[in-house]
Design a protein that fits this description.
This protein is mainly α. It contains 14 helices and no strands. 63% of the residues lie in helices and 0% in strands. The C terminus is likely disordered.
Length: 425
């Protein structure tokens, strides 16, 4: 089969865009934390880049996208040795597809880190990343996209770009880790945990938003009309989610904020991910509005239920990913999805299939992440000491600080190290 240079170029460009999402996430999470935790958040994303890149070449692609059984692929492509020179029936080199899917694996693991900001040992994060990516992400990718029991060849669930495989998967694991590791010292009262740098949050949001076009439209694996639909639906759903989030915040008596708008944008991006090629633009707008309205309420639940999800991975990624996946059962059009949602005369069948896929992926990821977290807790240790947490995880775990500036006449930087003459307000 001759190589289609146009489609190949689009997939390679999309892979680069999805890669950009991980440093974008590092900046987004870094801005959301306190100043003394920025380095640690960025290091967790960098660690995911390193570990998952290697494990994907060794076993990840093979476990996810080669023939095996309905639960996991085989090891026939260990090291990608048989993939380098093969080409799919659509004219796309398999090695380009492998590189594109690698970026999905990286960002999925990195998303989890937001739930354990300020308090998870970096060593424990390295072990969790290595184990969870192999035991959970690679098999789930096979379930959904690689011929496993959830996707087209099994249950028949629809997930164009990762509502279940990425966001429900990561969000459920984040919830498990948050439960195992416990609350931050001083949360929910007693200390201020507000974002320390909103411009950094805005920059991270912009990079995520840009990269998401490669994430969603690139999943078509072709430069065609479906990719164009995915781009448009991604944009309008995200815009609608911003409006939905701000409206709910206004109704709750809060003022419009950059933090709320950025959170709404991410919620919309997450929600449209599984549905972006299966719904019409009006359906994408409706989906975004629902996600933008529901997610701030879901975020608030952590205070009622008592779990400390530091950067709202559960309230945004798990909830919006589940919403986007399930709402395909309402808004899917037969000419785009091959099956009709409830609002297009399809009945409740697809809705049930989508809900089952969410439950299966979420339950599996939560359960395995809980076991990994407990194993870490009782072996190498999962949480930094109270002294390190109070002084700042950046200095305790990395001997670095994000801002090499003295603060308010103290003569020390945020890591507590002397830095010459003090600045005076």
């Amino acid at each position: 089969m001759p190589i289609d240079s146009g489609n190949t170029a689009w997939v390679l460009a999309s892979a680069a865009m999805v890669l950009l999402m991980t440093p974008g996430l590092a900046l987004f999470y870094g801005g959301l934390t306190r100043a003394k935790s920025v380095v640690n958040m960025m290091m967790k994303s960098l660690a995911a880049l390193g570990i998952v890149s290697v494990s994907w070449v060794l076993v990840g692609y093979s476990l996810a996208f080669t023939e095996g059984n309905p639960v996991v692929g085989g090891l026939s492509e260990f090291g990608l040795r048989g993939v380098v020179h093969t080409v799919s029936d659509a004219g796309l080199p398999d090695i380009a597809f492998a590189g594109f899917q690698l970026m999905f694996a990286v960002i999925t693991v990195a998303l989890i880190s937001g739930a354990v900001a300020d308090r998870m040992r970096f060593q424990a994060w390295l072990v969790f990343t290595a184990v969870w990516s192999v035991v959970v992400y690679f098999p789930v990718a096979h379930w959904v996209w690689g011929g496993g029991f959830i996707g087209a060849e099994g249950l028949g669930a629809l997930d164009f770009a990762g509502g279940t495989a990425v966001h429900v998967n990561a969000g459920a694991a984040a919830l498990a880790l948050a439960v195992v590791i416990g609350r931050r010292i001083g949360w929910p009262g007693g200390q201020t945990f507000t974002p320390h740098n909103l411009p950094l949050v805005m920059l991270g949001t912009g990079l995520l938003w840009f990269g998401w076009f490669g994430f969603n439209a690139g999943s078509q694996l072709a430069a065609d009309g479906v990719a164009g639909l995915a781009v448009l639906n991604t944009q309008v759903a995200t815009g609608a989610a911003i409006l939905g989030w701000l409206l709910v915040e206004r109704l709750r008596g809060n003022r419009p904020s950059v933090l709320g708008a950025c959170s709404g944008a991410v919620a919309g991006l997450v929600a449209v991910t599984p549905a972006c090629a299966y719904v019409e633009p009006l359906g994408a707008v409706a989906l975004g509005l629902v996600a933008g309205a529901v997610c701030p309420l879901a975020v608030a639940l952590k205070h009622r239920l008592g779990y400390d999800d530091s950067l709202d991975v559960v309230g945004i990624h798990l909830v919006a990913g589940a919403l986007g996946s399930v709402l395909i059962g309402l808004f899917a059009t037969p000419d785009l999805a091959g099956r009709a949602g409830l609002f297009y005369g399809g009945g409740l069948g697809l809705l049930g299939v989508q809900a089952a896929a969410v439950a299966l992926v979420g339950g599996f990821s939560f359960g395995v992440a809980l076991v990994i977290g407990l194993a870490l807790r009782y072996t190498v240790g999962i949480r930094v000491s109270p002294e390190v947490e109070l002084a700042g995880i950046d200095s305790g775990e990395h001997a670095e600080s994000a801002y090499d500036l003295p603060l308010n006449g103290t003569g020390t930087d945020v890591a507590g190290r002397a830095r010459g003459p003090a600045l005076v307000d």
